[in-house]
Design a protein that fits this description.
By secondary structure, the protein is mainly α. The protein has two helices and no strands. It is about 95% helix and about 0% strand. Helix 1 packs antiparallel against helix 2. The longest helix is centred in the middle third of the chain and has 128 residues. The relative contact order is 0.03.
Length: about 160
């Protein structure tokens, strides 16, 4: 489609050429041509007004579409942001739950290990204490026997 301004300029040039041609011809014919030129100018004006109206309507429609698109994009962006925040919150909660489970498992394992080691240590202490008691009993028996031997040899 030709630009309306360019079309109007072309039409004016054609009209100017026709006016010059009329100047070179006779007066009766000039008047007829003048009416034709005025009619052509009126048609060009009407076409220009129609084109201007169409362009104004197109501009308004485009502005409306642009406003609707902008509104839709803002709404969609808000929805996407809300969804992203929800998903991030869910991920954070899941990570916290997993971390809690890991901490519980580590605590239980540590408690079990410490309990086993302490039980083993206490058992060793008890065994060693039993050995010490046995050794003391043996020492007392040997001491009693030595006492008996002393009495036997002293008599």
């Amino acid at each position: 489609m030709i630009d309306p301004v360019l079309a109007a300029l072309i039409l004016l040039l054609v009209l100017a050429a026709i006016i010059i041609a009329l100047q070179l011809r006779g007066p009766a014919r000039q008047e007829h041509m003048l009416h034709m030129l005025e009619y052509a100018i009126d048609q060009a004006r009407a076409d220009a007004e129609t084109t201007r109206g169409l362009m104004t309507g197109s501009e308004r429609a485009l502005a409306g579409s642009l406003a609707a698109l902008s509104s839709t994009m803002i709404r969609d962006q808000g929805e996407a942001r809300a969804l992203l925040e929800t998903k991030l919150r869910e991920m954070s909660e899941q990570a916290a739950l997993r971390l809690g489970a890991i901490q519980n498992a580590v605590t239980e394992t540590l408690a079990t290990t410490v309990e086993k080691q302490m039980t083993g240590s206490f058992q060793r202490v008890i065994d060693q204490f039993g050995q010490v008691q046995k050794a003391m009993t043996d020492v007392q028996a040997v001491t009693a026997q030595i006492g008996d031997l002393k009495r036997i040899f002293s008599n």
